[in-house]
Amino acid sequence: MLLKMPDAPAEDRPPEEVAELEFGKLTSTDYLYVSQHPAGQPYPNPVEDDPPIFIYIVTYLSYLILIIIGHIRDFFGKIFRPEAYEHLVEKDGYAPWSDGFESFYERRLKERIDDCFARPIHGAPGRYIKCYQRIKMGINKYQYTGGSDECLNLSSYNYLGFGQSKGTCTEAASEIVDSYGTSGCSPRDIVGTTDLHQQCERLIADFVGQDDAILVSQGYGTNAFIFECIADSKTLVLSDALNHASTRFGVRVSGASVKVFEHNDMKSLEKVIRNAIAQGQPKSHRPWSKIIIAVEGLYSMEGDMCNLVEIIRLKEKYKCYLFVDEAHSIGALGPNGRGISDYFGVDPKKIDVLMGTLTKSFGATGGYISGSQKLMDRVRVDYATNVHGESVPPPVLAQIISSMSIIKGDLNPGEGALRLQRLAFNSRYFRSGLKKLGFIIYGADDSPVIPLLVFLPAKMPAVSRKLYDMGIALVIAAYPATPIVSGRVRLCLSSALTKEDLDYVLEKFSEIGDLIYLKFGSGIPGQTKKMNIQEALAGNVEMCKQPNFGLVKA
Amino acid sequence: MSPESEFTFTTTKTTTTIQTTTLPPTLESLSNTLADTFVHYLNYLGKVPGGDWLLWYIKASYKDDPVRSLFELALFLFGVYYFFNSRRKENKSDLVTLSKREIDELIDEWNPVEIVDEVTPIEKWQMKSLPVVKGHNGARIQLENLNKAKDVVNLASNDFLNLNESEELKTIAKSVINYSGVGACSAPNFYGTQDFHVRLEEDLTDYLHGENSILYGQDFVTPSSVLPAFVKRGDVCVVDTGVNIAIQKALVVSRCEIEWYHHNDMKHLENLLKEITPTLDKQKPLKRRFIVTEAIFSNGGSLLDLPKVVELRKKYKYRLFLDESNSIGVLGNTGRGITEYFGIPRSDVSITVGTLANSLASSGGFCVGASPMVHHQRLSSLAYVFSASLPPYCAKVACQAIKEIKKLNSNGKSILISKLHENTKFLHEGISSAIKDSNFVEVISNINSPVIQLSLKGPFREAINLPEFYGNTSFLTTARRSKYNNPFDEKYNLENFILQKIVDQVLASSNILISRSKNLLVHEHLPVAKPRLMVYANTGVSIEDLSLLIRTINGAVNTVCGSINRESSLDTLTSEMKVY
């Protein structure tokens, strides 16, 4: 047993086998689908099943018990084991780093299931992910056996499967190290801009259908300081209730006023816009100088998309501006992988500020902002990150350029389309399978993010540990990342997974679902019949390609 | 709550019934009816769960002392009123009631401004003057624009140790890319922590003699994520007035109480601490309090008097938040930063933040310090929790860079770092003596700063009517950010343009690329002092090339500034900007 994390076990399998474990081969051309919203049809609000009411009651009770026991432990712990609370109380005249109340959730709830988070891995996060074996030895301490477990990866944002250590993109990234080095060396505006940066920015602008784009070395960092350039204290930002923390941070830094509308609720948005224009700024009632609607393309915790068509209608009707965060949707949605506007068949130029990240679908890191030439010129002059933040390092640029060229079809023609269509099929196939088994699933049918509701806090580690033992790695999320009653497992699909992998995962999910009672749903909403695993898998390939998975309301 | 709300419901109902149904002839009969109805409805309470008890309580209390009952009822009604009132109190009194038609009219009339202002002709030069490197970035570069000469000496790069050109780092980077791919594809708390990240955290901890460390995906967001994780509303930060913009943003976001001390003025800091600490000591519970500063200041390049700050922080029980972006891999015999330079243990600095993108030739940021502090960030620091991890190869490259820095010569000094010190000293002294008689510029940075910073001299600036500082002072005076961003300042633009002309002149005359400070006035919350010329020391540049700069810089300055002496020539500059 080792206290420090050991070195990764040596990889002695042949490269072809490793490549297969990172990106599975397509087993049949039936397993493809094109992700596209049927033109002219309204965006359907996903129908969501509710669990039996007692599940809610038990969930609240569970949290109540956890909190009470936590406080009891704190109470006695402070008396009998003061040394464990040293960092939570005043000491030598210094206030604690965080007081017991702030860290209560972390110490008394998250700590109990700490082994389900931050599992260290090694190797590329592809179809399989290699997690270090570890044993929990007290608070925040682990022992390592030296080995690692290879699990099917339903956790990484590796939508198009570019998380590879073999292949075109990796070769490009590795070659660029020789000709460009390892680091960006300097902020963009000092001497950190190379021809490669410019090439990459032109490519992105072309890919997302905007005039120009600016690259940033981190997705969070992109949002954190972009609002400063477009908003000031006379600006109102209308923010979706479930927007990402980076957007909220960015708006806060900019000093703009914020009003929140209910998640994806267009009636609420319209009402807020009308009121905002009518009432103007608080106290002075002067009109707002501009109103910016901030939404995300694909919500990473809910798995649903913004209703882009309707939002654009509202924004045009009320002369607002639109900011769309395509962190998850770019590359993952649309027949050409060009994001939410591609999926809905909308002209991307109707979106004023189009932001996205390159961490997810492209297997790189960083983010971009794109928009009209006028906007981007202003951002180029006024963007603090360009002056003070590091520029994107060359290998990351090479990864972005090569993966984006593959998606566009300029490089390895056919491969990009195949990856996109595999992702779309996998997402639908897996989602329809889970729904038929009777799990409660949130989100849109075409979304590669699939939140599976488990509600009870105790069931989250149960699912995570059980499935980990069966060789499946997934992410659990609970309060405060989600509302208190809707603890969930989040599954991220990838084109790297094969249909057979998904069948295996569905089977195991079905077992676990029966074992710990997770199948609260009614099959397909409106239909009362739940299926067993054989029924659910039979004909699922054809059924998942039909609207609403071929299952009409009973 | 439920039985009580039932109770209110009944009482209000009672009053309305009376008013609408019966018109009592006399006061007496009114009170009788009222009492009857009240008791009648009150009895319904018995049917509500828990109502029995409430009924008993009311009866008993009425029997004992009717006045008390009345008082309790009033108190209860007030509570209910307060509860419903405070809910939507926000702005309610401020809202105007409008009909649908009026709202439609207002919407028709509303004329929003453009999302951004167009870049004006006198700003465009800022974009055009950006150097674009063709190919490899390093000590010698080729430029795509500006100067097409074959080789340009690069004295503008943050890669002080020129490790971007190191073969060892490149080999390591390639091996990791071929093992782990490029991106980490996940957040650190999920499956984004790879062995390379853990190794780098261990190496940084060991290298900087901390207890623990944590990595961030970008350097610029690190301070604005670390500081707000600890400093909440009501906590106190005592801050140097010269801090960089990343820390300014951190302070704005944390909404803490801010006290400012004059830039690097230890006397003022001491007086300030003496003055405010007694009141803070009385507060219960104790507020967290920090001294926030930089080791080598990005703005101006002065060096922090760390021993004095540590002495003061211990005496008055403050924690020290230190931005070592420009000093780790720079100061001290083995590049361990300002603590090594002054021989002070790292544990005396409570929070150290720094960047992997400068001396360590990688990318990303980090924070080093005590274990509970670092651990707290893993769940509470926004940029750590809500962002993907650093690419694994970046982590490994930084590990290798630390290894390279740790290679010592016979004197026990790091080979790379002592070369940097030599170059820095040579440049600093050379430039200082070359311009010592100059009427136009002076060196303002500390001799230890790897970035030699020059600004226009006071008399010259006065002669051409440039103000002492730019921007507004409201952050300093009120400790609250100004509600409005700084407007575009033509003089600031002009001074920057003069410096850019010097940069261009140096490039044209000696093929050496230097840079200038590019603080964005519009986003700065503190007053912006004079813009500076920036010469970045680099171990990859030979002494001959440095000498060339030293020989030519004064000439270049004279060529540019010599022609600027009256206000009228400023107009010429403005027209030059437009055709840049």
Structure description:
- The complex is a heterodimer of chains A (554) and B (580).
- With 554 residues, chain A is of the alpha/beta class.
- Chain A has two domains: 15-53 and 420-550, Aspartate Aminotransferase, domain 1, CATH 3.90.1150; 168-408, 3-Layer(aba) Sandwich (Aspartate Aminotransferase, domain 2).
- Helices cover 39% and strands 14% of the residues of chain A.
- Chain A contains 19 helices and 14 strands.
- In chain A, the strands form three sheets. In chain A, strands 4-10-9-8-7-5-6 form a seven-stranded mixed sheet, sandwiched between helices.
- In chain A, helix 4 (168-180) runs antiparallel to helix 14 and helix 15 packs parallel to helix 17 (499-516).
- Chain A is globular and about 60 Å long.
- Chain A starts with 14 loop residues before the first helix and ends in an 11-residue tail after the last helix.
- With 580 residues, chain B is of the alpha/beta class.
- Chain B folds into three domains: 2-87, no CATH class; 124-150 and 411-578, Aspartate Aminotransferase, domain 1; 165-405, Type I PLP-dependent aspartate aminotransferase-like (Major domain) (Aspartate Aminotransferase, domain 2).
- Helix content of chain B is 48%, strand content 11%.
- Chain B contains 22 helices and 15 strands.
- Chain B has helices at residues 2-21, 27-44, 51-64, 66-87, 100-109, 124-128, 167-180, 195-207, 221-230, 245-254, 266-282, 306-316, 338-342, 371-380, 382-385, 392-405, 415-434, 458-463, 474-478, 490-510, 543-562, 567-578, and strands spanning 133-134, 140-143, 152-154, 212-216, 236-240, 257-261, 289-294, 319-323, 351-355, 365-369, 441-443, 451-456, 512-513, 515-516, 532-536.
- In chain B, the strands form three sheets. Chain B has a seven-stranded mixed sheet with strand order 4-10-9-8-7-5-6, sandwiched between helices.
- In chain B, strand 7, helix 12 and strand 8 form a beta-alpha-beta unit.
- In chain B, helix 1 (2-21) packs antiparallel against helix 2.
- The longest helix of chain B is centred in the first third of the chain and has 22 residues, at 66-87.
- Mean pLDDT of chain B is 88; it is low at 1-22.
- Chains A and B meet through strand 1, strand 2, helix 4, helix 5 and helix 7 of A and helix 5, strand 1, helix 7, helix 8 and helix 9 of B.
